[in-house]
Amino acid sequence: MATATDTGGISDAVQDYAKAIYSLHERSDDAVSTSALADRLAVSPASASAMVKRLEALGLATRRPYHGVELTAAGTRVALEVIRHHRLLELYLAEALGMSWDRVHEEAEVLEHAISPELSELIAAKLGNPTHDPHGDPIPTADGEIEKGSSRALSELEPGDRGVFVRVSDSDPEMLRWLSERGIAPGDRLEVLERQPFDGPLLVRFASGDHALGGALVQMMRVETA
Amino acid sequence: MATATDTGGISDAVQDYAKAIYSLHERSDDAVSTSALADRLAVSPASASAMVKRLEALGLATRRPYHGVELTAAGTRVALEVIRHHRLLELYLAEALGMSWDRVHEEAEVLEHAISPELSELIAAKLGNPTHDPHGDPIPTADGEIEKGSSRALSELEPGDRGVFVRVSDSDPEMLRWLSERGIAPGDRLEVLERQPFDGPLLVRFASGDHALGGALVQMMRVETA
DNA sequence: CCGCAAGTTAAGCCTTGGCTAACTTGTGAT
DNA sequence: ATCACAAGTTAGCCAAGGCTTAACTTGCGG
What we know:
- Chain A is built from 8 helices and 8 strands; from the N terminus they run αααββαααββαβββαβ.
- In chain A, 43% of the residues lie in helices and 17% in strands.
- Chain A has helices at 12-28, 34-41, 45-57, 73-95, 101-111, 117-126, 173-181, 215-220; strands at residues 61-64, 68-71, 151-153, 162-168, 189-195, 202-206, 209-213, 221-224.
- By secondary structure, chain A is α+β, with helices and mostly antiparallel strands.
- In chain A, the strands form 2 sheets. Chain A has a 6-stranded antiparallel sheet with strand order 3-8-4-5-6-7. A two-stranded antiparallel sheet of chain A has the order 1-2.
- Chain A binds chain B through residues 1-2, 4-5, 11-13, 93, 96-99, 103, 107, 110-111, 113-116, 118-119, 122-123, 126, and chain B through 1-2, 4-5, 11-13, 93, 96-99, 103, 107, 109-111, 113-116, 118-119, 122-123, 126.
- Chain A binds a DNA duplex through helix 3.
């Protein structure tokens, strides 16, 4: 079945791909690899490859075969619109309707594709046109502007600071690999527990556990703080 | 694409068929004919026939070939649930979010398939568990009860009859707009003054003035008589 | 009892979105 | 410098969902 309101080939799935590409790109700042996309969306690389071709045909993405995808301006607009819907909905469902926070996400995941632009603006207005959701994530504006991620180096944080690990500068693959071996990946929330003097390591708590991180690593790891 | 939340084969389209069968049955109290259904949903009779078979396979309808469809208890539940969603949404969008009345219907038409039961209950609670929507349509309860409507088409009234204009069938937004431009809205009392022969218009007195109404309009306008 | 409208089946089309299997490409390690 | 291997791509396939037209049955009114 096509999308409820015919949006000219931009199905829910296409929107989800755009959203995924956007957020993967945001974390690594590079063209997004097919496998990362496939992984994120829990489909085979072949399927992701095919869908990416559809996005390209729709003018939403440009692709350099074997080197990754990037969103066009139009694709970015699609992604940001969906993200805006999602975040506004989460906020609204929790705040205005008292929905429990752990249910809010999946409800928004469905509704983000169903609400009209008009409704999303009414919701935004009711919320007082918020610019950030309760997690601290910025909410794109109706015309597709989004606050540039004000990420800092992990090394700049002080004990007690919390944030989201968003990327490694230059996406150093070796660092990424090293981190992932320890269960740390972009997107993870973290809290700095302690910092040793004399440029020593930081003790950082992730969902997956505590880690002592130091040296070049903490300078390369970029963190977004709410 | 399948329905967002997998509901075991009950796609949006299936829900729409159930809704259509329900409301056609409500008006005529007979098994619903394939052609009436096809007509209402703007598809070919063959398509309607095929879909009706699917409803039957899903246990939502029983069918006597060449003699019409009726919903089973399960089918009625599906229909009422969708109708409940629809009416709650209409009410909520207008009342809580200030959406204009003529846009509310189409927005609800999409969202009725997307909201979870939990969300619909939150909405109902926020509205104070209303039993009627602003068009005067009764809202089914969460467990599938609905007030038997004792409304008649305006076209069935005779001169001298009085009543209350309760709703427009299917809340046709264009008709609602047209009526409201003339100061006529659900809830208004009326009296039929005169009816012209040969299927001509009715002369109807409202608090706001007298109006000559005819054609499809008087068949869609539902009236409750004391 | 017959014809015609309503209903049904048959056959098929198209889209969406996924899969596996088999291929190409590009790269890092030797 | 080359070569193996991982990553990416293509080819070929499948199933579901919904719709269509064309050709058939049915059953009812005259």
